[in-house]
Amino acid sequence: MARIAVGIEYNGAPYCGWQYQDHSPSVQVEVEKALGKVANHALRVVCAGRTDTGVHATEQVIHFDTTVERNEHSWVFGANANLPDSISVLWAVPVSDEFHARFSAVRRRYRYVIINRRIRPALLSQRAVWEYRPLDEKRMQAAADYLKGEHDFSSYRALACQAKSPVRTLYQLDVSRQGELVFLDLEANAFLHHMVRNIAGVLMTIGAGEKPPEWAKEVLELRDRTLGGVTAPPGGLYLTGVDYPEQFDLPHLSLLPVVW
Question: Does 181 have pLDDT greater than 60?
Answer without folding.
Answer: yes
